[in-house]
Design a protein that fits this description.
By secondary structure, this protein is mainly alpha-helical. It has a single domain, classed as Amino acid/polyamine transporter I, CATH 1.20.1740.10. About 65% of the residues lie in helices and about 5% in strands. The protein has 20 helices and five strands. A three-stranded mixed β-sheet has the order 4-3-5. Strands 1-2 form a two-stranded antiparallel sheet. α8 (about 140-175) crosses α9 (about 200-210) and α14 runs antiparallel to α15.
């Protein structure tokens, strides 16, 4: 058993398995489609919300030691203090959040370099799950896949609930009121809300699932259209807002100094989560050795430019102090800035439409990634074979798409996950840490295997990416880590009871 847990699957065998007729996916995605996948996953509503929150600072109570960041808990214990409840205020970054965005861009590029090398080595579905199977062994691969399923599945539930609440709020502006019983989750913050079902959330998930079931071509075209529309909405805001900029609002530029910039970077990290979805689509790319790298770096560059532009224009229109916690501008900063200058309803409508499309687009890509991950794990025998069954016409893992969509739809309709949404960031950070480790490990274990792309200055750049990732992981609350460990325990039980017995690597 111990030998199986540490057993690694050879890269040659994984590639050979993917080329078997029953497992062959359509290779339709080109470089622009891969860039659109990255932009689709990265840009949601964060570009409209987080810039204001990070710039103005954030005040929030800490109800117990369990809600303290892990790094802060360790610091207090080292200095002989007992962590407990309190009140936290993050320093305002002000217009200096542009440096926060750029710092995160550099960190994500380092992580993206690791993804690009591994995708050129293993152009397969499954992303970090597949890389871990070759570098770290079967148990590590399973736990990695289980973590990614948490990131993608829980992320979609968060997006569906956010879309439902935003749709309800925006319709009320036009005096259209959705009944609470049919537009709210049944369970929220540990209590029954009195609602029957969050119908808007369920409907949007099912629509996304239906389009995904039509095949990778339908997915790519729909995602490309949504990316163009939501990018156009952001460019519209930049064009209108740039005429209303008052340079005096950029002073002071960094009111919170370096602590404000670094704290804002942790808050803004959510805005960059999702670019790893590009590597999940590697097996359906026409030239994965080139297209994955283009998709990752192209999407990161586009998003960085849009984020920096949004920050400069937004904080040039109104002072950063307007966006402090619990102020009028802290809810939707972009809309508030336009309303502050008396923007016409049409202009506000464009921004609202961009926000909605951004949410749907991010859901679209995450659900695509979730289905491909189930498919890769099923192909290795770690989950039932039905998940690796391809539709004879579309060559899509249709059972994965529909089963995953049904689980997300039911969860979004019934549960408001609230503060557990931090698990999405935790899952992404764990994947980012593992991809750095896999690069270092495979450089030592398989140095001669052909790589069309290599991370320069290895292992120092992967180690730098790993260090940055670990720091951000330590900035998450302790309770998030406890919930994450519970999720891992559930995954371990499933592996020991099913995956270990039916693993194709063990059978071979």
């Amino acid at each position: 058993m111990a030998g199986q847990l540490a057993a690694k699957k050879s890269i040659s065998r994984m590639i050979a398995d993917s080329e078997l007729p029953q497992f062959r996916l359509n290779k339709y995605l080109g470089p622009w489609s891969m860039i659109a996948i990255g932009v689709g996953a990265i840009i949601g509503t964060g570009i409209y919300y987080l810039a204001g929150v990070a710039a103005g600072g954030k005040n929030y109570p800490i109800p117990s030691a369990m809600h303290q960041p892990v790094l802060q808990v360790l610091w207090q214990i080292i200095h002989g203090a007992l962590p407990g409840a309190g009140f936290h205020r993050s320093p305002p970054a002000g217009p200096a959040i542009v440096f926060s965005f750029l710092l995160l861009f550099v960190i994500c590029v380092l992580i993206g370099l690791c993804f690009a090398e591994l995708a050129s080595l293993m152009p397969l579905a499954g992303s970090v799950y597949t890389y871990s199977y070759a570098a770290l062994g079967e148990l590590a691969a399973w736990m990695t896949g289980w973590t990614l399923l948490l990131e993608y599945g829980l992320g979609n539930v968060v997006l569906a609930n956010t879309l439902s609440s935003e749709l309800k709020a925006r319709l009320s502006d036009f005096h259209i009121f959705l009944p609470n019983r049919w537009s709210m989750p049944v369970w929220s913050e540990g209590r029954w809300t009195g609602a029957y079902l969050n119908v808007p959330a369920v409907c949007v998930v099912l629509i996304v699932t239906l389009i995904l079931s039509r095949g990778v071509r339908a997915f790519s075209r729909t995602n490309m259209l949504m990316v163009i529309l939501k990018s156009a909405a952001i460019l519209f805001f930049l064009a209108v807002g740039s005429t209303l900029v008052q340079p005096a609002n950029w002073h002071p530029f960094a009111p919170g100094g370096m602590p404000g910039v670094l704290t804002a970077g942790i808050i803004l990290f959510y805005a960059y989560v999702g670019f790893d979805c590009v590597s999940v689509a590697a097996e359906e790319a026409k030239r994965p050795q080139r297209d994955v790298a283009v998709g990752i770096f192209g999407s990161l560059a586009i998003c960085a430019v849009l984020y920096v532009g949004m920050a400069l224009v937004l904080l040039g229109m109104v002072p950063y102090t307007v966006f402090s916690s619990h102020t009028a501008g802290s809810s939707v900063p972009a809309l508030y800035a336009l309303q502050h200058f008396g923007a016409k309803p049409m202009s506000l409508g464009v921004i609202v439409a961009g926000m909605m499309i951004g949410l749907v687009s991010a859901m679209f890509v995450l659900q695509f990634g979730q289905a491909r991950l189930w498919y890769a794990m099923s192909r290795d025998g770690l989950v039932p074979e039905v998940f690796s069954s391809l539709h004879p016409k579309t060559r899509t893992p249709h059972w994965c798409v529909w089963m995953g969509g049904a689980v997300v739809a039911i969860s979004a309709g019934v549960i408001d996950i609230g503060e557990t949404s931090d698990l999405v960031a935790n899952g992404a950070l764990v994947a980012f840490a593992l991809v750095s480790i896999c690069v270092i490990r495979l450089r030592k274990s398989q140095p001669d295997h052909p790589r069309t792309f290599k991370v320069p200055w290895a292992p120092w750049l992967p180690l730098a990416a790993l260090a940055a990732t670990l720091i951000m992981m330590a900035s998450l609350p302790l309770v998030t880590w406890i919930r994450f460990l519970v999720w891992l325990a559930i995954g371990l039980a499933i592996y020991l009871s099913y995956g270990r017995r039916y693993s194709k690597l063990a059978a071979g």
